[in-house]
């Protein structure tokens, strides 16, 4: 039987690791961890750490990060998104601005973080 594999951490490239880490932590109501070396960590409830690291802006390759959240937490997350005045979309191609999707019977939105990464919040996993 194969070993149990879990994602432990990933590095999130950004222009300003403090700004990007605090932005995501605020939206998702998470804690910003203690800076260590070039990283500022934000850890999700399932123990995965996003380590924000500064790199030159022209070197940032936009990535996609999706977060599964409980239905009861969605409204608070959505309210914090609106507080930051971030644009949101119902789809990854940004064709449906200011809308929420209801894929698989849940709710979901996409938004762009300060470094240009596509962030997604969903209440149901796809195919669920």
UniProtKB/TrEMBL annotation:
It comes from the Bacteria. This is VOC family protein. It comes from Streptomyces beijiangensis. InterPro entries: Glyas_Bleomycin-R_OHBP_Dase, VOC_core. Residues 6-124 form the VOC domain.
